[in-house]
């Protein structure tokens, strides 16, 4: 009798131990302590990310803010970064950290600011709750740099953000969430790495895009335009991860259209050490993390891999 090949999905990321490489992406279920805990305990996520918060509470855009696209598991959204503010977010983190620690699922705190200095200020508030990792969301189209464009388009602005955050929270690893819309995503990422970022998250939504209701003769979203996620984003996200892996020395969380184990394989071969799942929660339910892990394990057994870490970067020619 042939013994079933043992597969190890354990992943090391920025000094953190993840029981598997799946990560709940920001903005999906990370709205409360209870839901974050469910994503790890019931869903099987290897790590969980909070919804992005800023210094003060923010309402966001009025409804409608999110719509499914007609082809594939894709969405368009313009939520407007609604959140309760950094102080309230820190309390949520403290509430759920003990339970997540028991499960072995690190918590990632996502945040943003109106200026580089404000990014640092928010990071200082969140650091008091001791999240496992900070994720600076520089790539939401609702947040622009002092130069009137998204921070993620501006390498100098991102460098300054990293410096401010590392000054405010020097002991907590920092990932920068990048934009697929950046004219030169690699240049931005390299600036972040040089300034002291410990990782990058690639990528945020694509666009902005639009849906028009022909009968109403008007755009459907209250904000008119919104970011595109899910299957429609995946090929672009894969390209971004691939390009970044070629140049960076820090690890990558690859996100954008991961719904299946095969999607995870592709992102890891492109260079991601961990894979973020967002839209997949809507298409497959909160158990999508377990499903992706089972499918990933099955693919690895069939193809002779024992460790998921062995997949990282395999789509690239060997580095000299």
Question: Summed up, what is this model?
Answer:
Helix content is 34%, strand content 18%. The protein has 320 residues and is α/β, with parallel strands linked by helices. It has a single domain (11-311), classed as TIM Barrel (Alpha-Beta Barrel).
Give helix and strand order, one letter per element, not per position.
EEEHEEEHEHEHEHEEEEEHEHEHH
Percent in helix: 25-40%
Instruction: Calculate the mean pLDDT score and round it.
Output: 91
Shape: globular
**Largest β-sheet summary:** 8 strands, parallel, barrel
Q: How many separate structural domains? A: 1
Q: What is the number of beta strands?
A: 16
Q: Record the strand order, biggest sheet.
A: 3-4-7-8-9-10-15-16
Oligomer: single chain
Q: Between the first and last Cα atoms, what is the distance in angstroms?
A: 42 Å
CATH topology: TIM Barrel
CATH homologous superfamily?
Aldolase class I
Give the C-alpha Rg. 19 Å
Low-confidence spans: pLDDT under 50, at least 5 residues?
none
The number of helical elements comes to 9
What is the CATH architecture term?
Alpha-Beta Barrel
Structural account:
The protein is α/β, with parallel strands linked by helices and 320 residues long. The chain has a single domain (11-311), classed as TIM Barrel (Alpha-Beta Barrel). 34% of the residues lie in helices and 18% in strands. The protein is built from nine helices and 16 strands. The protein has helices at residues 33-41, 86-103, 116-127, 155-168, 185-195, 234-247, 261-270, 279-284, 288-303, and strands at residues 11-13, 16-18, 22-24, 47-49, 66-68, 74-77, 107-111, 133-137, 174-177, 199-202, 206-209, 212-213, 218-219, 226-230, 252-255, 274-277. The strands form four sheets. The chain has an eight-stranded parallel barrel, surrounded by eight helices. Strands 5-6-14-11 form a four-stranded antiparallel β-sheet, with no helix packed on it. It has a two-stranded antiparallel ribbon with strand order 1-2. Strand 15 (252-255), helix 7 (261-270) and strand 16 (274-277) form a beta-alpha-beta unit. The chain is globular and about 55 Å long. The relative contact order is 0.16. The model has no long low-confidence stretch (mean pLDDT 91).
């Amino acid at each position: 009798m042939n013994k079933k090949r043992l597969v190890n999905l354990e992943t090391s990321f920025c000094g953190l131990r993840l029981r598997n490489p799946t990560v709940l992406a920001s903005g999906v279920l990370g709205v409360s302590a209870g839901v974050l805990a469910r994503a790890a305990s019931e869903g099987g996520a290897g790590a969980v990310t909070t919804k992005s918060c800023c210094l003060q509470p923010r309402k966001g855009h009025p409804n409608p803010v999110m719509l499914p696209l007609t082809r594939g598991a894709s969405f368009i959204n313009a939520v407007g970064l609604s959140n309760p503010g950094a102080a309230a977010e820190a309390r949520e983190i403290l509430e759920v950290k003990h339970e997540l620690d028991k499960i072995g699922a690190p918590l990632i705190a996502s945040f943003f600011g109106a200026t580089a200095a404000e990014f640092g200020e928010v990071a200082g508030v969140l650091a008091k709750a001791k999240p496992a990792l900070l994720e600076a969301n520089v790539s939401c189209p609702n947040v622009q740099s002092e130069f009137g464009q998204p921070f993620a388009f501006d390498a100098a602005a991102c460098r300054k953000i990293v410096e401010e955050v590392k000054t405010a929270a020097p002991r907590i690893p920092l990932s920068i969430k990048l934009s697929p819309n950046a004219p030169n995503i690699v240049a931005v990422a390299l600036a972040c790495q040089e300034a002291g970022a410990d990782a990058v998250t690639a990528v945020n939504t694509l666009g902005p895009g639009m849906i028009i209701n022909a009968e109403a003769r008007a755009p459907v979203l209250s904000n008119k335009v919104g970011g595109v996620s899910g299957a429609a984003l995946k090929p672009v996200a894969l390209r971004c991860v691939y390009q970044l892996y070629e140049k960076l020395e820090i690890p990558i969380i690859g996100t954008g259209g991961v719904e299946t184990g095969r999607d995870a394989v592709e992102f890891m071969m492109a260079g991601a050490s961990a894979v973020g799942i967002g839209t997949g929660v809507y298409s497959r339910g909160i158990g999508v993390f377990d499903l992706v892990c089972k499918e990933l394990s099955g693919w690895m057994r069939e193809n002779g891999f024992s460790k998921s870490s062995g997949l990282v970067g395999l789509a690239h020619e060997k580095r000299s």
